[in-house]
């Protein structure tokens, strides 16, 4: 089935069919649905090259990814990209990744936009007062921020998790179990999500008349090795924490290894809560002692960012909400128990 045959079948012009399939607002909803139904039933697939020439659209989403020798690979990034790629594939969009030096990221974004290679893009790894947002708002291409930026007015399109609320709720649970000495294995200190998680912990502790000792906080890459080394540091403190919050189940994997080496029993000698990004190869319920977690799927976030960007391209007048904050789910398992006497 080609465009001409579909046109003859429906008694509509080829232009009307093309515009209906591409979401142009001047095509009525009844006609659009009729065209979409016929396309599904006949197996019609538009010629993407011709479609791009006709619409002036690249049919691509983009990301500029800073790369430096000291950066380690990130399983969390890969999980988000998997969700985004699923949606791109379903809508026959390409996904373009442009590597850049960290100091040249803004220049690379401007170059990507001016090249016409993408119709929309997203920003990730938000920092406090992130200058990329003002730059993105000045460019003529839709964008979505994955996360938020502390210190800036939230007048830009974003999708984020309520990291502050999640770690406040997790800390409240531990306080309710009688814990008074806390440790935090957090992500990189410059990133917004890590700052918000620290805020959530501080808020809960302050309300209970407690404080988080600075030597009981570590910030760094969310890796198994970092979790292991810095859990050993926390266990070596004169007054070691009885409750630990981890920014990721990957960090928790290393932390639990350090606990096992020290002969401590999770949930009895020390309680631990981790954030669960719903990583398929690291399920918290499959730890030797199942982990209590705050859970929000990174893959679902990737899917949603792609859906929002594509909607903004294909139907900008009826696009999704400008801002979304997802609530994490607190799932209680065996890794949390009463504070040891």
TrEMBL record:
Signal peptide: none annotated. Transmembrane segments: none annotated. InterPro entries: HTH_LacI, LacI/GalR-like_sensor, Lambda_DNA-bd_dom_sf, Peripla_BP_I. Pfam families: LacI, Peripla_BP_3. Residues 1-55 form the HTH lacI-type domain. The keyword Transcription applies. CDD domains: HTH_LacI (cd01392), PBP1_AglR-like (cd20010). Coiled coil: none annotated. Keywords: DNA-binding, Transcription, Transcription regulation. This is LacI family transcriptional regulator. It comes from Rhizobium paknamense.
